[in-house]
Design brief:
By secondary structure, this protein is of the alpha+beta class. Helix content is 49%, strand content 12%. It has two domains: 2-16 and 88-219, HUPs (Rossmann fold, 3-Layer(aba) Sandwich); 223-470, Isoleucyl-tRNA Synthetase, Domain 1 (Orthogonal Bundle), CATH 1.10.730. It has helices spanning 2-10, 89-107, 111-123, 152-167, 172-175, 192-205, 239-244, 249-258, 270-299, 318-337, 341-359, 365-370, 372-393, 398-408, 443-453, 456-485, 498-504, 510-518, and strands spanning 14-24, 29-30, 36-39, 48-49, 66-70, 78-87, 128-129, 131-132, 138-139, 149-150, 183-188, 213-219, 222-224, 266-268. It binds zinc ion (2 copies).
Length: 519
């Protein structure tokens, strides 16, 4: 972080400017942008923050807000002068533009990522303040800035190489190796400019050879049951809830990617969540693998039977079925290469369906007795398809992939360009069956909806109580901070300072402590 900062300084892309920042006179402190609240000037939303409006998504300046208020005590902030460092994005515009035009082309960015970046560049970049009057944050490596820190605008993405550098001394092999490393980034659309303008601009300005964004995969918004997810209002299900309700990570991973808002907003709906588990993961994928592994264990002593991939008869188009799987495999690979995760996951499910199609009417005891060669072919192909499904599912539901590999007593194979159903050969001993997924009771839908949606009133009451509690806490904190930073004039020599008196009470004779109070 400091390295990038100082190089930008050396190259002339940083400059000091005196700006007006919101200052709360009530609790004697500069306010971070998000600590100013008020009405959004763009859309009229009355709960916008000084940095951003959650309703319309506009990035705001705290002074843009109508009726701005200090979040801590509700006082109206006043503008006060303070010196800050600005990143001269205007001077970097040309370089960013050139890089952007090539990167978009090379890395097949998603449409909204391109549109948002283009809008920023077309509007013309401006210098942006990258320091703040805050206590918490990365220090500014310049004299006179001891009481300020670097702001999240600038340092959030630089955190990626910083984290890597904390992990290994060889981080530059990754982050300063644009010829051999392709950087893929996945984010919500509200984070686009940080990754496509500010981060690349910052590293371009150092004049060093940094690895920069190659493919950008951005999403629209995931909403919750026709409303917005809101942690503060307690609406929606979040990471900690997901852990608490005990549904395996694979199910979450599957559902969230199957509903990834790649081209438009999508909904999180419990009904569909349960459906995805019960009729896709369990009925399609899980049951296919389970049926085959169980049958081979029960009837063939857990051994891959003699079979040939070129088997053909009149009852079913075996070669055509293999060709179909390969066609879908090709499509899966193509979607994956262009980072269309949702589409590739759908292709995966289609391939799994092909497995069930193969087993239909052909896998039972009667068939094994009446048509042994055919039934053994079905099993040989199905076991090999299960091995392929393990590989194809591993980027999405790795735990399921590992389970399949255990059940097949095999290893995770590389995804082939063309599927050759002969990885598991006749005579190979497979392992024991495991359940990949279990059924979720439909009754859970109502229960979870109640638990994570709540009624308007109960939710409102709960939020109000929480807000009051937080306000009280913030008030106390602010009061304490104000007392520490700037004691009211006269307090030190006039009226006794509560804090000093109580702190010294053990060392002072009681009379002296009491004295001022007697006055
Ligand atoms: Zn205040
Ligand atoms: Zn707004």
């Amino acid at each position: 972080m400091h390295e990038i900062f100082l190089k930008l300084h050396k190259e002339g892309f940083l400059e000091e400017r005196t700006t007006k920042q919101p200052y709360c006179e009530k609790h004697d402190s500069f306010l971070a942008d998000r600590f100013v609240e008020g009405t959004c000037p763009k859309c009229g939303y009355d709960d916008a923050r000084g940095d951003q409006c959650d309703k319309c998504g506009s990035l705001l300046d705290p002074f843009d807000l109508i009726n701005p208020k200090c979040k801590v005590d509700g006082a109206a902030p006043v503008p006060r002068d303070t010196a800050h460092i600005f990143l001269r994005l205007d001077k970097l515009q040309g370089e960013i533009q050139t890089w952007f035009e090539k990167a978009v082309h090379d890395g097949s960015w998603s449409a909204n990522g391109v549109a948002i970046t283009k809008a920023w560049l077309d509007r013309g970049l401006e210098g942006r303040s990258i320091t703040r009057d805050l206590k918490w944050g990365v220090s500014v490596p310049l004299p006179g800035y001891e009481k300020k820190v670097i702001y999240v605008w600038f340092d959030a993405c630089i955190g990626y190489p910083s984290i890597t550098a904390n992990y290994t001394d060889e981080w530059e092999k990754w982050w300063k190796n644009p010829d051999e490393v392709k950087l893929y980034q996945f984010l919500g659309k509200d984070n686009v400019p940080f990754h496509t303008v500010i981060f690349p601009g910052s590293v371009l300005g150092t004049k060093d050879k940094w690895t920069k964004l190659h493919t950008l995969s951005t999403t629209e918004y995931l909403n919750y049951e026709n409303t917005k997810f809101s942690k503060s209002r307690g609406v929606g299900v979040f990471g900690n809830n997901a852990q608490e309700i005990g549904i395996p990570a694979s199910v979450w991973r599957y559902y969230l990617i199957a509903n990834r808002p790649e081209t438009g907003d999508t909904q999180f709906e419990w009904q569909n969540f349960v459906l995805a588990n019960n009729s896709e993961l369990l009925a399609n994928f899980g049951n296919f693998v389970n049926r085959v592994v169980k049958f081979v264990n029960a009837k063939l002593d857990g051994t891959v039977p003699e079979f040939s991939a070129s088997y053909a008869d009149d009852s079913f188009d075996f070669p055509g079925w293999i060709a179909d799987v390969n066609k879908l495999l090709g499509e899966y690979i193509e979607e994956m290469e262009s980072v269309k995760l949702k589409a590739s996951l759908a292709k995966f499910m289609e391939i799994s369906s092909k497995g069930n199609l193969l087993l239909q009417y052909r896998l039972d005891n009667a068939n094994l007795v009446a048509h042994p060669e055919r039934t053994k072919t079905v099993l040989g192909l199905a076991l090999n398809l299960a091995s392929l499904l393990a590989s194809l599912s591993s980027p999405f539901v790795p735990a399921a992939a590992e389970s399949i590999v255990r059940q097949l007593n095999s290893k995770l194979e590389f995804i082939p360009e063309t599927w050759d159903p002969e990885v598991l050969k006749p005579g190979h001993k497979i392992g024991k069956a495991e359940y990949l997924f279990t059924r979720i009771d439909d009754k859970k839908v109502a229960e979870w909806k109640e638990q994570f949606g709540g009624t308007q009133e109960s939710r409102a009451a709960e939020v109000e109580a929480k807000r009051k509690k937080q306000e009280e806490k913030d008030r106390k904190k602010a009061k304490k901070a104000a007392g520490r930073q700037a004691p009211a004039p006269g307090a030190a020599d006039g009226a006794p300072l509560e804090t000093a008196a109580t702190a010294d009470i053990k060392t002072l004779p009681i009379r002296e402590v009491l004295k001022p109070e007697e006055k």
